[in-house]
Amino acid sequence: MDEMFCIGKKVVYPAHGVALIEAIEEKEVSGCRQSFYILRILGNDTTILIPIHNALRVGLREVIGRSEIPQVMEILRRKDVEICPNWNRRFKENWERIKSGSLYEMALVLRKLVVLQKERHLSFGEKKMLENVRQLIVSEIAHAAGIDPLEADGMVEKTIATA
Prior knowledge:
Number of domains: 2
Largest sheet: 5 strands, antiparallel
CATH architecture of the largest domain: Up-down Bundle
Strand content: 15-25%
Helix content: 40-55%
């Protein structure tokens, strides 16, 4: 199977964040030799093995380009977000968006949770989701723009606050 990414490349692993491809190794699994990306998740320093043939299916993708950041900020400013009143359905929909790996979908989740938080108290699960999705967004923006995570966090906070 052809490799889509090379060693040293920063990629995004859905729901885990920005990762560095540290190695590409062959391992034997259930009697078959497979090639794996060895990823180090930069946010928490954990290592994950992703079979190369599964990389697209699990949503492994490149970090967004700097030119895409304004689109993310635009989503964070949206006023017309629809929020499902059913907690279970809302949580499931938000989790599916996060798992998609799309930064735009994650920005929409963050926006919805921020709007909801202004209207009422979030459940423990939604508070945790808000913190996690915000961290995923801040981390990717920092890597995309080549800036410090604190600066990226400030950008996100300012954008949310002015919306």
